[in-house]
Amino acid sequence: MGNSYAGQLRTTRFEEVLHNSIEASLRSNTVVPRPVFSQLYLETEQPLAHDGRTENDDEDFEESSESNSPPLPYQMKPPPEGCCTTDGFCQAGRDLRLSSLASDALDVPPGFMLVGVKFPSLPESLLVCAVDRRFLPDERGHNALLGFSGNCIGCGEKGFRYFTEFSNHINLKLSTQPKKQKHLKYHLHRNSQGVLVKGASICWRGHDGRMRQMGSSLSEGHAIATEQPPNMALQNSSHTPSSYTAESNVDPSGLPQITDAPHLLTNGSHAVPSITHPPVHQSRPGRPSTTGSHANAGPPKKRHKGWSPESSATSLTESTLKTPPSSSALSTLSVSSVISNGVRTETAAPLSSSQGSLTPLSLTGLSVTIPDDLLHTCRLQPVIFKGHGPLPQLTGNVNEVLVSSLLQSCYLSSQTLPRVYQHYGPSPIQPLSAEMQILLTVYYLVQLGPDQVPLIEDLEQIFMRSWRESHLSEIRQYQQPQGPATQGRHYGIETSSTLPGLPQHFSLPPQSQQPLTPSQLPWLAQLAASSCGEGVVVLGEKIGSLAQGLQQTFSRLMEGHLENTNYVVIIFTPPRQETQSCVVVTGKHQCRALAECMYSPIEGLKEINHQLSTGVAQELINYCNSLGQDGDLDSLLDSATVDSNEPSPLSSSQESAEERSLKTTQSPKDTNSPKDKNSPMDPQTQCSKDSPSPKEKTSSTKDTCSEYSIEWREVRPIQLAVARKLLSHVCAIADSSTQNLDLGSFDRVSFLILVPPSEVTFQQTVLHLWSSGVLQELGGLDRECLSQRDAERYVVKMDKNAQARIDSLIQEAQSNSSTLYILVHDHAHWDINSASHCSSDSDSALVDQLLNSREVRDAPNILILHVTSFPFALQTQFTRISPYNEIHWPSAFSNDVDLYHEKTRYFGVSELLESTRSGSNMPLLRYDSSFESMASALEERFPQLHSAVIRTTVLIQHYCVALMAASSRIGSSHNLHKHTSVETLEIVQSLLTAAQQCPAHHGHMVLLRIPSLALAAWAHRRLSRVRRQLGLEESFEIIVGNPNQALNIGQSFTDRIKTWLKIHDADWVPQTYLELESLPCILILSGAEPLGESLPRSLKYCDLRVISCSYLQRTTLEQELGLAAYLVRAESRPPHNPGPGSDLLESDAEKLSSTDNEEEEGQENGDSPKSCSQQLQTGQDRGTLDQSTTTPNVQKGTMDTIQPPSQSQTQLQPHPLSQSFPYPQPTLHQPQVQSYSQAQSISQPQPQLQIQSQNHHLPQTNSQLFTQMLPQHQSLSQMLKAHPKPQPLPNTQSRRQHSKSTSSGSLSPRASSPHLSCSWARGVSRPPSVLLSRALYDIITASDSSGLPRCTSFLPHMSVAWASSFRPLLSKMMTCTEQSLYYRQWTVPRSSHMDSRNRTEGRSDNFHPRRLLLSGPPQVGKTGAYLHFLGILSRMLIRLMEVDIYDEEDINYSAQAEGVLYHPPNASWPNPDIVRTMPFDYTIHDPKYDDISSVYSAGYKASAEGNHVRQEDVYLRRRTSRIKLSKYAAYNTYHHCEQCYQYLGFNPRYQMYESTLHAFTFTHLLLGEEIQLYFIIPKSKEHYFSFSQPGGQLESMRLPLTSDWSPDSIKTPIFTPTTGRHEHGLFNLYHAMDGASHLHILVVKEYEMAVYKKYWPNHIMLVLPTVFNGAGIGAAHFLIKELSYHNLELERSRRLEVGGPSGDVWPFIILADDSCVMWNTVDLNARNGPVEHAVSLKHILQHMEACPDLAHYGLCGIRKWSSRGLKGHKQREPFYRGHLHDFLLLNVDRSQNVQYDQNRFSCHDVDFTLRLHSAGLLICRYNSFSVMKKQIAIGGYRTFIIKTKTTDVPTSVGPSQYICAPDSKHLFLATPAQLLLEKYLQHTSQKLFPLSTKNYAHPVLSVDCYLNLGPEVTVCFVSSRPHSVNISTTGLLFSGLLLCFADSFVSPLFLKKFSFLKGATLCVISADRSSLRQTVGRLELEEEWRFRLSDEFQTANAKEDRPLFFLTGKHI
Length: 2012
Fold this sequence. Notes:
By secondary structure, the chain is an alpha/beta fold. Strands 36, 37, 40, 41, 42, 43, 44, 45, 46, 47, 48 and 49 form a 12-stranded mixed β-sheet that branches. The protein has an 8-stranded mixed β-sheet with strand order 34-52-51-53-54-56-55-50.
C-alpha cells in the first residue's frame, strides 16, 4: 500500500523540507525517505496503522509489516562463528553451571544479585548469572521493572540490556520467545560453609511463561539505592485513573493539529502519526513565531537504556551551589525519595523550585570548574537542571551556579506507569524513553518565548500527551473502571492538540513507526533547535562527556557567545551505555526567575531583608532617584518644599527625626543606625505617622455628603442558606449510626474562633461577632454586649498565646458534657504544617498541635469547622475530613435566575479573568508594560538584587513621580510624565481628585501589595516624605498593613471617619480595613500572604505589580487575586450577557455542590458577568474620555493606537506622545452617556475618543468597565469612520442605583447615580482594577486544553504533591464536589503537612467524624454564614430539648358538673363504692374527638354553635405547646446517651443483642379459628417468658402475683401498638421508668417486623398475623386483650402446677399510645394553688398498682395534659368516671366478656368504653395524673390512604364514592370495607339521617356499637345485652336507628321499646346481602320501616375484598 497524495501544493520552505528528509534518513535504516520535492509540493496522507507485529527484542529496528499476518514462530539468532555452543557454557566458553561455580569467588557488582537460570536441556542443573535486582520482583511479586539488565558470571561481559540477547550469550536453546519470568527461577545464596546453593523461588506473581510481567515500570534513570528496600517504590500508588477518554481537540487557531489516524505498533513501541506542517514564518532569533522543524521521534524499544546500577546511589544526591531552604518543597529530597510511595513531590513552580545539598559525587572521574567572576562577567547566575545520568562534580566558583533535580524528578515520575495497566497481563504499553524525553524537552524549550520561564507542569503534560497519543489504542483497552485500583470517581483524560499552558502554536514533533535511538538523538535535537536561532543550543555531537559539555558552556558564557541563548541542552550518548543529559539555563530573565523560585515565600522575604540590611540595594535606590535630564527626584522635591509657603505638617521633633532618617547615610554594617534617606527601614521599626497639621479643621456640618450612607447589613439569603447547609451536615453526623455526635445530649453551644495571627483579621472577626447578635443569642454574656471587647474572648489569634486558650476549652469541655463546643478554624489553609517538622518555639504548626491533638479529637462534644477559600491543601489522600462533611458555597444565580433572592452578586477571580476576554470594555485585570520594561532593564543592570527589591523600588518611584506630576507644586517644564507609567499616573490622579469632588472628602483606597515588611516600611517612609513635601498631608492617608501591628491612622483622618460613621466615642480608633470605607488612602499591605483581611468597598485599585513568579501554586495565586473580590448589586448584571467565566477558580464558587443541588450543575457556566453595569460613560473622575471602550486589543502603556485584532503578534509601540502634550487636568461635570440605545443616536464622540487615545498618553481607569456593549455586527473602525466630528454628550439618563455590601458582614453603601458629586458613591458598585506583573498576567490569563485558566493545573499548595504524573486535567464542567474528589485522588501531603501521618495513626477510615469544611470564594461572606450557623445550631439544640405537646382544652365541658366532690381533694386512690355513685359521663371531652358524633346523655345540654367540622389532617394543625423535655421523658430512636446504650442494645462494648422468633397459638371463638402470633424475644428478655425447656416452645408470658412488689420494678406489662413509627415512636422508656425494670412489648404488623427489629433490637415485639396487615387500631387492641386473657389463664394453670395460688396472678395490662412522652402529677400543697410537675412513669404505675381496690375496676386511666387543665377549677374531683383514652390500665380478667371491635379504624376506644360501662364494670380516671402526648406527624393508625384498585397512587375520591349500588360497575377502591363505611358515615350522615342533623333532642339510636356519624349528629348508645346498664330513653323520640352487625340479643321486642319520629332513617349494616335480608326479616323491620330496592348499598370494594352491605329505610 503506497501513499496517496492529495495533490495540494505545499508552502513549506525548501530548507525545512530538506531537514525533514535528512531527519527521515536518520530515523530509519530500512525505509527509503520520500524525495524532497515530493514533500515540498504534495500533501501526504497518513498510512493506515495496524497491529499484529511480533515482538523481537534483539533487533533495534524492524521493517514495518504491511500485512495482518499472524506472528511467526520464534527463531534463535544464529551465534557468531567460532563461538562456543555447548550447553551450560557461555559463548565465550566459560562454565556457568551452579555445580561448577558453587565454591568459586564470584564478582557481583553493587545492585546485582545471583540468580539461577532454568536450562531446558539440563533440567537437573542451574546456570548462574548476575541480574540487576531492580528487574526482579520482591517477595510479594511486585515492583519489578520491565526489561532486563544482567552480566555474565563466566566471561565477565557486562551490560546485557535484553534477556533475548543474554539468552543467546548463555546458549539457551529455545523454541519460544525468551522470557525472564520463565527462565529466571531461583535466588542463589551462600550457606554457612560459603557454598553457593539454590535458594527460594523468584516470585513472579500472577505470571506464567506465557504472560508478560507488568511491573511498576519505574522509568529509566530512576535509581534506587542498594540499601533501600525494593518494595518502597510504589507502595502507595494505587490511586490511578482506570477510565480514560482519548479525544483530539481542534485548535481554533488553525495551527498544527494531530491528525486522527490509527497507530502502528512495532515491537511494543509506539508510533504516532505525523503532524501537518503549516507555513513557518521565521522571526527574530530566539523567538519562533510558529513551530519549527518537527522530528519524527518515537519512544524506544530499549525500555531501559541508560540504567547504570553503579551510579544508582550517587546519582540521587542533589547538587546545588546554594544554601538549601529549610522549608522548600523539595529542599533536600533525593530522587529515590521523590519516587518513593509512588508519588511525585515537586512543587508546581517553574522547573527549579528546589535544590538539594552540595554533595555531587561523580563516578566519571571528571569535574567541571566554574569560572571566577561568572556573575560579574555574565550578569547572571546559571541554573543547571540535572537530567539523565549523574552530573559531574562542580568545583571552583560554585556559589555562582545553581543546580536543580526537578527536571530529573519530572523524567522519573513521567516513566512510572500507573497500576491500571497491570491488571490484564501482557501489554505493549511502555513509558517514554530517555531519548524521547530529551527530544520533547528540546521542543518545549524551543517554543518558549524569550520572556517565558519553563514550567514543570507544561513539560509534564507534554510527556503525558506524547505517551497517550503513542498508546491511544492500548489505553482504550483499559477504559473500563477497575474497582480496587481506583478511589473516588474516574476522570477522563483528554488528548488535546494544544497543551495546557503552552503557546497556542505549540505542537508535538511527528513520531514515526520507528523508535528513537541514542545515535539519532543529537541530530534530531539540533535540528529542532535550529528553528529558533541561538535561543536554544544543543551540545551533543562533539562532546565526550557531560563534564566536557558543561565546561564548553561556561567557556562560551564567559566569552559572551551565549548572549542571545536562553538554554543549552547537553546530550552525551556513549555507545552501549545510558544516555546522559542536562540543561543549563543561560537566559538572564529565566535564570533570575528560576533562582527566585527556589525560595519559598518565607525564604524569599528573608533574602530580601538580608539585601536591604546589608545596603546592597542602595545603588539601585540612588539610580532610580535620578531623572536624567529632568534632574534629581530629591532636588525637585526640595524645591517644591522651598517654594511653598505652607508650614510643615510635622512637629519639630518628628521633622528632625524624619530628616535624619532621610539624610543620614547608613553603613552597611550598622543596621541599627538611622538609614539613608532612600534606604528601606527595618521591618521591626514602627512606621512613624504624619501628625495632623495644627491648622487642620474638621469638616463642618455643611461639608456633608448626601450620597454617603453606611449601615451594618443583615445576613444575606445565601449566607442563611449556607448556615442551614452546615446545620444539616451536623444533623447528618448525629443521625448516622456511628454514635459520633449525640445532639440530644447537649443543651447549649459554646464556640471559639481561631484566626491567623493578624491583628486586623482578629479585630475584624471580633467586629462581625459583636454585631451579629450571636453572643446574646447563645447566652454567652451575662449582660448585653456593650462593646467589642466583650467578644474578644471568643476569638483567638493562632500565636503562642493560643495554647492556653485551647487547653482551657478542652478542660471546660471535659467538665461540661452537656455543652457542644464548636472550634471554628478560619482561614484554615494558612498553617497546615506538621508539628513533628517544626521546632517547639515556632509559631507554625499550632493548628496541628492544638486541633489534631488527641484530647480534641476524642472529645465527643467538640466539633471542628474549618473555613477557607482555598481548601485544596485539606483535600488529599490522607485528609481528615470526610467528603460528605464538605460544604461548598453555592452560586446565587443560575442562568440569570436568582436562586436565593440576593441583592448582591459576587465578582471574583473568574469575573476578573472574564473581563480580559470581553471585547467591549477595559479589562479589570491588566499589566503595565511601561513598568515592566523599566523593571526588566533594572533587573539586568542589578543581577544580584532580588526582583522584589527592584520592582518595589521602581513602583514607589513611579508613585512618587506621579504624585509630583499630579500636584501643582512642580512645573510642567520638568516633564515628569515620562518617568512614570500611565497606569500609575491614573491611580494617583484618581486618588487625589476623588476627595476633591465630594464635600465630605470621600475618596478611594489604593492597595499596594508588598509582601516584604522591610520594603513596605521603606515604601511608607518614601511616600510619606513625598506627600509631606508636596503639601498633600490632608489629601490622603498612607497606611502600612503589618499583620503584627494594629492599624495606625492619623488623628485628622480618624476624626473624619468618626464624623462619617457618627461615632461619638472620643477614644474610638479604626481597627479594621472595613472601617476605612471612603477614606482616600494608600494601603501598603505587607506580609508573606494575606491573612483573611477584608477590604472596604471603596477599594478602587489593587496594585499587585510587585508579586512575582514565585507564587505559582494555585492557592497563593488565587489568594493574591482574591484581594480584589467584590460584591456588586445583582441588578447591575446584564440580563442576557452571562460571560462564560472560569468555574473552577475560588474553589469553584459558581458551581453548586453535587451533594447539595446536583441538578443545577451543568447550568453554571454563564455566571461571570462581563461587566456589572455595562454603561457607556466618560471618565468623570478625570474629566477625560477613555480608550477603554474601543477595543480589547489595546495594550496598556505599550501602545496607544487602536489596532485591528489581527496584529496581536507584532504590536506597534510608538513613543508616548504625552511628552509633547501636557497632561489634561481633571474637570467636573462632564456629560455622560448612560445607555447605548441613546449613545447610538449621538455617536459623534467616538472619533474624539480615538483622537485623544492616539495623541495623549491618557490615564485609564476602570470607570469605563460598566459600558454598554458595542453591537457585534459593527466593528469599531466602522463606528469611527461613520462619525468624524466630535460633539458633546448630553446628560441623558441617571445611573441605576447600586449598593455594595462587604464580604464578611461589613458595610453596604447606599446606591449612587451618575451625576452624584461624590466620586466614592459613583464608584462604590464597581469592582476594583487589578494590576499584575506581565509574567503573572500571561500565566493567569492563559487557558489549558479544557478551557480552564492555566493556574488551575498548578500544584494546589506547597505542602502537597501530585500522586502521579498520569493524572488527568481538571475539567471545566466539574462541580466543586467533583473537584474535591479530584484532589483527594491525585494529591498526597508532603512530610511537612499535618495530614501526612494521618494514615499511620491506626484509624480505619482516616476521617475525623466531627470535622467539617466550609469553602467559598474570598470576601463572599463566610464569616457571616458560620456566625449565623452558630446561632441556628444553638436554637436547634434548644429545640431538641423541647417537644411539641398537644395542648388543648377539654371540649363539651359543662360548668354545672363542677363543684360536686365525691372524694376528698387529696385522696390517693378511688373508692369503688363512691365511684359507683358517681354518674357516668357519656360526653366525650377529648379534643382530638371534636369532629365526631356526641353521645347523648340526659343531663347534657349541647352548645348552640355545635362542633365545627375539621379536615382529615386536622391533627397536624391542632394546638400545641413547646415543652422542654424532663428527665423522665420517653424518647425515639434518635436519642442516644450513655445510660441508654445497654437498654437499646447499641452499646459497642457488647455484641448486638440476639433475638429469637417464637410462635404462640390460641383459639378464639369470635374469630372461629386458631390465631398464630409471633414473639420476637431478645436473649436479654427471655426471663420474662416461660418455655417448655430452655430454647424450646414458648408457653406463656410470666406474670407476677398481686402480692409481689419491688421498688425497682413494674408489675404491669406495657403493650404499645404502633405502625409507621419505627424511628419516631417513643419506645425508649428507660428514663421514663427511672431505670426500673419493666416488660414492654411493641405490637407491630408483620410487614413492618424487620424495620422495627432493626431500630429496636432490644425490645420484645408481638407480630400480628398476616391478615391484620391492613387492619386498624381496633384489631391490635382486640388481639392484645384476648392474648393477655389467654396468657392469664395459662399463668394461672402454671401456678397451679407448681402449687401456687391461681387467683393471685396479676390481671392488668397497660395499653399505651406510641406518642406518650411525659407524665405529670398535681401538687395540691403548693403555695399558689395546684401545680403540675413532671414525674416518672414508674411513679404513676407503682401508685396505681398500689391501689388496694384496683381489682374492682375494669378500666383505669389518667388525664390528658393541658396547660389550662388546672385553671378555673378550685375544687376538682380527683377521680372521674367517663371515657378514657391513650393510656389505659385494663383489667383483662373483669373485662373478659367485653372485646374491642377488631374491625374498627376510629373511635374504637369510645365504643369499647361505652360497652364496658354498659356491662357494669367500673371505669375510673386519675385526675391527679396527666400524660403529655407528642405531636408526631409521621405514621400512626390514623394515616390510611384511600386509593383505587387500578393504581397505587392516592387519588382524589370523594366520600360519596365510598359506596355504590350492589352489582354496579363502579370504581372499586383498594381500601378496607370497614374504613370506607366509617368514612362514609362520618362525612355523609347529614344526608343519611336528615332529621338528626343539629337535633340533639332527637338522637340516632345505635344498638351495641358506637359509630361516628359526624359532628352534627348525636348518637344514643344502648346495649341489647341482658342486665346491661343503659341510659333512660323514656319519652325520647329518636330520629334514626343504626343496627351494625346485630346479633341474637337484638330482637323485635327489644326494638319496640324505642319510639321514632315519622320519617326517621333506618340503617342496617351486615357482612353480606343474605345476612342483611335475614336481619330485616328476623327483626320484623318491614312492619314499621319502608324499604326501596334503590336503598341497598355496598362499600366500593371488589368481591374478593369482602364489601359491607347496608340498607336504609324510612319510618312509617
